């Protein structure tokens, strides 16, 4: 499964979701561990104010769909983006560590454990 996180060039978590200049898409295995990592320069910081909020959210939605993203990890997303992700049924998980890869793994391992606990 693919998980997206806003990132900085040094590999740390970018605190801006909808205004992130760069994001990573991590391929994660069934246990929540990152198996592949790819970064993309999306320039959402520059593109954010070029058009309406709806058109910007549509841009992000297209990216998520093109990359088959099933969850996002972030420190913050605005209410409009939260509603958009909820409508897509794409969970927004908390980024709690400074390192983006480690934060994805921690969020996904916790989410996988929660799903397994619910199933039991």
Can you offer a commentary on this structure?
It holds the Pfam family Nitro_FeMo-Co. This is Dinitrogenase iron-molybdenum cofactor biosynthesis domain-containing protein. Helices cover 40% and strands 24% of the residues. It is of the alpha/beta class and 120 residues long. The chain has one domain (2-118): Nucleotidyltransferase, domain 5 (2-Layer Sandwich). It is globular and about 45 Å long. The model has no long low-confidence stretch (mean pLDDT 91).
- Count of distinct structural domains: 1
Give the proportion of residues in helices.
40-55%
* CATH-scheme architecture: 2-Layer Sandwich
Strand and helix order: EEEHHEHEH
> What share of the residues does DSSP label as strand, in percent?
15-25%
Shape: globular
| CATH fold field value | Nucleotidyltransferase, domain 5
Largest sheet: 5 strands, mixed
Task: State the low-pLDDT regions, or none.
Answer: none
Overall mean confidence score, pLDDT: 91
Kindly provide the radius of gyration, computed on alpha-carbon positions and rounded to a whole number of angstroms.
14 Å
Q: What is the overall number of helices?
A: 4
The CATH superfamily turns out to be Dinitrogenase iron-molybdenum cofactor biosynthesis domain
Q: What structural class results from the helix and strand content?
A: alpha/beta
In short:
InterPro entries: Di-Nase_FeMo-co_biosynth, DiNase_FeMo-co_biosyn_sf. The protein has 120 residues and is an alpha/beta fold.
List the helices and strands and how they pair.
Layout: E1 2-6, E2 22-28, E3 34-41, H1 44-47, H2 53-66, E4 69-74, H3 79-88, E5 92-94, H4 100-119
Parallel strand pairs: 1-4, 4-5
Antiparallel strand pairs: 1-2, 2-3
InterPro entries: Di-Nase_FeMo-co_biosynth (IPR003731), DiNase_FeMo-co_biosyn_sf (IPR036105)
Protein name: Dinitrogenase iron-molybdenum cofactor biosynthesis domain-containing protein
Pfam families: Nitro_FeMo-Co (PF02579)
